[in-house]
Design goal:
Blueprint: H1 12-25, E1 27-28, E2 31-32, H2 33-43, E3 48-52, H3 53-59, H4 61-69, H5 71-89, H6 91-108, H7 113-118, E4 123-127, E5 147-158, E6 161-166, E7 168-171, E8 177-179, E9 181-182, E10 187-188, E11 207-209, E12 215-225, E13 239-245, E14 257-267, E15 279-289, H8 301-311, H9 316-323, H10 332-343, E16 348-349, E17 355-356, E18 362-366, H11 372-382, E19 386-390, H12 396-399, E20 401-405, E21 411-415, H13 417-420, E22 425-429, H14 436-447, E23 450-455, E24 458-463, E25 467-472, H15 485-488, H16 493-496, E26 501-505, H17 511-527, H18 536-549, E27 553-554, H19 556-571, H20 584-600, E28 605-606, H21 608-624, H22 638-641, H23 646-665, E29 671-672, H24 673-682, H25 687-699, E30 703-704, E31 710-713
Parallel strand pairs: 3-4, 13-15, 18-25, 18-26, 19-22, 22-25, 27-28
Antiparallel strand pairs: 1-2, 5-12, 5-14, 5-21, 6-12, 7-8, 7-11, 9-10, 12-13, 14-15, 16-17, 20-21, 23-24, 29-31, 30-31
Helix pairs in contact: 1-5, 3-4, 4-5, 5-6, 9-10, 10-20, 19-20, 19-21, 20-21
Enzyme class: hydrolase
Pfam family, one: MCM_N
Family: Belongs to the MCM family.
Length: 716
């Protein structure tokens, strides 16, 4: 057995002895903490014990210092100490571990202390104190080969693979066995057999890896990136590769925020010989979740006192609206809707485990220069986990998730904006510019709040539990009132219907409003500040407390109010020719907004006043899409939910019925398009309706031309 020494550190025997004493003797009060944890490890058939580093510092500062500064030197002794402690606590389980290690040691011809310890299937995991946290961008040469604590977002996660710890090579000619030399990232394998016969002849046979004799553990690579809130404008996020091994594998999903204790490694890539720069990675020793949502914002007793005082203010809502994006003039209804989206409602889990989202989605469609982008960017800075992205600049990875290849050619699962915003708010600018891949992927993320990926042998479901506040421009540059909502918004109806509220912002000349806007802009730009009732930090803390502490339920009065509104609006659709006014999806949205309004008041019960506020915003939404509900004009929500009015849908269905009847009498060559047009006109349909039907069905692949001038339906 070879014992190495490290200058300024305890010797290996002292490390083993003192750490064994720590495991068996450290206690808090009357409880022996690590004896209990070792017993739990055995009971759960686990291989790792988590050590609170602060406990180790209190027990033996010199030992803790050696472990943090020289982890590679100390780790083999720590594993042996854990095995010895296990012998005292559970001799039978320890005997199994010891026999396994000895058997592997003999099989592989291991001689060094470090290699022998690496065969012990036990791990010591260190949870470093929060006070030792280092930012990813601050990692430098002084941290190499030291145990460090960092936080970040798991942007990419690869599939797990075997990782060689002790590679064994066997001669294909004579059977001679030799272990390879293991570096940080590569194995130096013998190419020719070094065995020399009694006659002095060298074998020189080819050496091949003997997988069955080699010792491997599972490993997984991930890309750890700086958290969004740590970035200063214009700075690219720092990313570091991290290596997970053994029982840490598959503990992290893309988009998760994690805190890791790891050894910071630096190495020279094989292909970069001659260069002076080194590549780096983190060899993870321990990890835990570090999710930072609204609920994780720290509040002092003084903060709580201020929050309680704010909740008693009868003008609270108006003051919150005044304080939200104060540099943007007007848009009070939109700001109120955004506030309710930030407060959110509790998610509901039904008896069959179906999850009904509590986050509201808001869509703003506006003419250029109406402040949409500035509004979204302001909100992104307000929330702890606000991810701002652009539909135009986002690939399929950008909004949801995707399987990508890394520099080594391996497949990795990468999280997009909505997954990274899990537990917060995703703000999507220029949502109308999304490509087709995003349009198909975003459906599940908006309603189920999950992203499912099945590609390249990877199947995963990632959480995207976030509210979405999106903005876009009208299809024709400006919103045209003589066109339908679906015509004006370049989004499929299936996406539009998933937004709880849609607002149209138009830039129309208005002498009074224009004068007020000009005065506001000149005053704000001239003074460089706006007086607001509450600071952004105060709003953040208030929302955090509300989301953490208040989970409203609907009162009978609120439920009756919503039910009455729903039935009243549905009555406008009680005849076949009436338009669709409201559906159950919009009713669910009203419930979310009602509960969010109650949460804003810090009320555990959503009252009638909350339902009235939600109904008012819903009516603003209906008026925004071109309907004056106060005048009694009927609303057709089909223009949003399916992209056509009920009248248009009825016309399409009747024309389709005519074609089905004609095709039933025709042969395989279909019917003459001219005859079909004549028949439709005889039934009272206009040329415009017929042309629209044919264009829609041909583009959708429903109709085809078996011969020139003839049409037929594709068989389903």
């Amino acid at each position: 057995m070879v014992l190495n020494t490290q200058q300024g550190a305890l010797d290996v025997i002292s490390i083993q002895k003192r750490f064994q004493e720590f495991l068996t003797e450290f206690r808090v009060g009357e409880e022996f903490v690590y004896k209990k944890r070792i017993n739990e490890m055995v009971a759960n058939h686990e291989r790792s014990v988590v050590v609170e580093f602060e406990h180790l510092i209190d027990f033996d500062y010199e030992l803790a210092k050696t472990i943090q500064e020289f982890p590679d030197y100390a780790m083999p002794a720590l594993k042996k100490a854990l095995l010895e402690a296990l012998k005292m606590i559970d001799p039978e389980y320890a005997a199994e571990i010891y026999e396994y290690a000895v058997r592997n040691q003999q099989l592989r011809g291991v001689e060094t202390f470090e290699e022998a310890a690496s065969l012990i299937p036990l791990n010591v995991r260190f949870k470093l104190p929060q006070s030792s946290l280092i930012r990813l961008r601050d990692l430098g040469a002084q941290h190499v080969d030291r145990l460090v604590l960092v936080e970040g977002v798991a942007l990419r996660v690869a599939v797990s693979k075997p990782f060689l710890v002790i590679p064994v090579y066997r001669c294909m000619r004579c059977g001679f066995v030799q272990t390879g030399i293991v570096g940080l990232t590569e194995v130096f394998a013998p190419t020719k057999c070094p065995r020399v016969s009694e006659e002095g002849q060298r074998c020189n046979g080819p050496m091949a890896l003997d997988s069955s004799s080699s010792y491997s553990i599972n490993h997984q690579r991930m890309l750890l990136q700086e958290r969004q809130e740590e970035l200063v404008g214009g700075v690219l996020p720092r990313g570091v590769q991290a290596l997970l091994t053994d029982d840490l594998v598959d503990k992290v999903k893309p988009g998760s925020r994690v805190r890791v204790s790891a050894i910071y490694r630096a190495y020279k890539p094989v292909k970069a010989q001659g260069e002076r720069a080194l590549d780096t990675f983190l060899e993870v020793n321990y990890l835990e979740s570090a999710e930072k949502e609204f609920e994780s914002v720290e509040l002092t007793e003084k903060d709580l006192e201020e929050i309680r005082r704010m909740a008693q203010d009868p003008w609270l809502k108006e003051k919150l609206i005044d304080s939200l994006a104060p540099g943007i003039y007007g848009l009070r209804d939109i700001k109120e809707a955004i506030l309710l989206a930030l407060f959110g409602a509790p998610a509901v889990v039904l008896p069959d485990n179906t999850r009904v989202r509590g986050d509201s989605h808001i869509l703003i469609i506006g003419d250029p220069g109406t402040g949409k982008s500035q509004l979204l960017q302001t909100i992104a800075k307000l929330v702890p986990r606000g991810i701002y992205t652009s539909g135009k600049g986002s690939s399929g990875v950008g909004l949801t998730a995707a399987v990508v290849r890394d520099a080594k050619g391996e497949f990795m699962l990468e999280a997009g904006a909505m997954v990274l915003a899990d537990g917060g708010v995703c703000l999507i600018d220029e949502i109308d510019k999304m490509d087709d891949n995003d349009r198909s992927a975003i459906h599940e993320a908006l309603e189920q709040q999950t992203v499912t990926i099945t590609k390249a042998g990877i199947h995963a479901t990632l959480n995207a539990r976030c509210g979405v506040i999106a903005a876009g421009n009208p299809t024709f540059g400006k919103y045209l009132r003589d066109r339908s909502v679906a015509d004006n918004i370049n989004l499929p109806p299936t996406i539009l219907s998933r937004f709880d509220l849609i607002f149209i912002v138009e830039d129309k000349p208005d002498d009074t409003r224009d004068r007020e806007l000009a005065d506001f802009v000149l005053r704000v730009r001239g003074q460089g500040k706006v007086d607001v009732p509450f600071s952004a930090e105060t709003i953040r803390k208030y929302i955090a407390h509300a989301r953490r502490s208040v989970n409203p339920v609907l009162s009978p009065d609120a439920a009756e109010k919503l039910n009455g509104f729903y039935l009243e609006m549905r009555k406008k659709s009680d005849t076949p020719d009436s338009p669709v006014v409201i559906t159950t999806r919009q009713l669910e949205g009203l419930v979310r907004l009602t509960k969010a309004h109650a949460r804003m008041r810090l009320s555990g019960v959503a009252e009638a006043i909350d339902a009235e506020a939600a109904i008012r915003l819903y009516n603003v939404f209906l008026e925004s899409i071109g309907v004056q509900t106060s005048s009694g004009k009927k609303v057709d929500l089909s223009t949003v939910t399916v992209g056509k009015t009920s009248e248009e849908l009825d016309t399409m269905a009747k024309i389709d019925k005519i074609l089905v009847e004609m095709l039933a009498l025709a042969g395989a060559n279909g019917v003459l398009e001219a005859d079909f047009r004549i028949r439709c006109k005889e039934e009272g349909f206009s040329e415009k309706d017929i042309e629209k039907y044919l264009k829609l069905k041909k583009a959708g692949g429903v109709l085809f031309e078996p011969k020139p001038g003839r049409i037929a339906k594709v068989k389903s």
